[in-house]
Amino acid sequence: MTARFDAIGLVVSEMAVSVGFYRRLGFAFPEGAEQEGHAEAELPGGLRLMLDTEEMVRSFLPEWQPPVGGGRASLALRCDSPGEVDALYEELVGAGCHGELKPWDAVWGQRYAVVRDPDGNGVDLFASLPAAQ
After folding, report:
1. Helix (H, G, I), strand (E, B) or coil at 57
2. I want to staple 84 with a disulfide (CB 3.0 to 4.6 A). Which of 8, 69, 79, 107 is the partner?
3. In 3D, which of 93, 92, 86 has the Cα closest to residue 110?
4. Is 120 exposed, middle or buried (0-12, 13-18, 19+ CB in 10 A)?
5. Helix (H, G, I), strand (E, B) or coil at 40
6. By the 8 A CB rule, do 12 and 52 touch?
7. Closest CA to 120 of 75, 89, 83
8. Which of the given ranges, 3-12, 89-98, 113-122, has the highest pLDDT on average?
9. Distance CA 47, CA 70 (A)
């Protein structure tokens, strides 16, 4: 028997807010997911992003408490171009999301930015920079 990586799970404070945030990033959560305690969006390659409310987690682990302090998880999303990184960052910040790191040209050859999801998890936005001529 071999275990296989199948899904990424995040615990969220408000399902509707989190589903809305991730839909802005292109995740296809089904209609009505906003009212559920557990929601899933299929990802390319067969993986899934799973969201569970704090209440759902406490239904099977009553002593669960949200972590204290900084974010411990992040998702990295590849954009098609450096301009898309900038536009998506501005769209998310304009919609009220916390911009952690404004877009910049990183020394490792990417246009790179970081926003926080509604529960403080990092969402990295990146695209390869054109090769120097």
Report:
1. helix
2. 79
3. 86
4. middle
5. strand
6. yes
7. 75
8. 89-98
9. 26
